[in-house]
Design brief:
about 300 residues, about 60% helix, mainly alpha, 15 helices
């Protein structure tokens, strides 16, 4: 598993001027799964990167428009990390090597490493950033996400909660806490945190995306679609949110619609390939019938 860190790199390099290869949202090797297993497999592909994507962000997730703080990722940064994490890793890795003390560059590099599946290295980068910025709530939130991506959920939850201030709660930390709770299997507590975040930041696409993926992991597909449909309509919703919506629509058997949704952020060939892969998974013995039976 809904992400990434929600931070804007300061003085990070621009995207390379070349045609970037967009990455498929789904894996290319056949996977035998049934029922909720299909949901877990595919959600993990999108969300860890999550999404990204990191699940935190579930993630990944771009704060909306002008309501976002100065630390939100630029659209170019979020797009590069989401569509070509290997290229992003090289771009921000080079910048980090030149200036490892720059907070924004470190955050962008850690996010790119997570998107590329290099969670242990991402955590190592975030540990250094957190040492240099021990009271920065955005940094601590990103550190918690890196811990979660590396599998240390209890410490991730502790870190995110320690960064929070009850008298002035931060919606990003609430959403990050919800994503960790989802991974711990505490869906009701997770959704309570998402709703608290949405009270502070109404219609925030990153939070709505995390909420939608929470419903997806619980096999509550109509509720997942409702939340993700709201998310993609908001300013600042990044490509991963639309990919998640395409996944949820496809899981309900509406493959043509899923392909149209995915085509907005992927090439037509890749969108078609993703939907064909999803159709293949759901067409395996008993998989689709079990999904429908579980949905009631």
């Amino acid at each position: 598993m809904r992400t990434l860190p929600e931070t804007r790199a300061t003085a990070v390099p621009a995207q390379p001027e070349r045609t970037r290869r967009r990455h498929s949202a789904y894996p290319r090797s056949p996977v035998r799964a049934s029922g909720a297993g299909v949901l877990a497999v595919l959600a993990a592909v999108l969300l860890t990167g999550c999404t990204q994507t990191s699940r935190m962000t579930t993630g990944s997730v771009t704060p909306a428009g002008t309501a976002a703080p100065a630390t939100a990722p630029s659209p170019a940064t979020a797009s590069l990390i989401a569509t070509d994490p290997q290229a992003a890793e090289k771009v921000y890795g080079s910048a980090y090597e030149k200036n490892p003390n720059d907070r924004g560059t470190g955050l962008a590099y850690a996010s790119a490493l997570q998107a590329a599946g290099r969670n242990e290295q991402s955590l190592a980068v975030m540990q250094q950033v957190a040492i240099k910025h021990p009271t920065d709530r955005d940094v601590l939130a990103a550190y918690g996400k890196a811990l979660a991506a590396a599998g240390d959920l209890p410490k991730a939850l502790e870190t995110v909660r320690r960064a929070q201030t009850p008298d002035r709660p931060d919606w990003r930390l609430l959403s990050a806490e919800g994503a960790i709770l989802d991974q711990l299997g505490r869906k009701d507590a997770a959704r309570a945190q998402y709703r608290r975040a949405l009270v502070i930041q109404p219609d925030e696409p990153s939070v709505l995306s995390n909420l939608g993926m929470s419903y997806l992991l619980a096999n509550e597909l109509p509720a997942a679609e409702e939340a993700l449909s709201r998310a993609v309509k908001q300013p600042g919703a990044d490509v991963r949110v639309r990919q998640n919506l395409a996944l949820v629509v496809g899981l309900q058997g509406r493959f043509d619609e899923a392909e149209r949704i995915a085509s907005a952020v992927l090439s037509p060939e890749e969108a078609k390939g993703n939907v064909a892969y999803l159709r293949q998974m759901l067409g395996q013995k008993n998989t689709w019938s079990e999904l429908r039976a579980e949905r009631g």
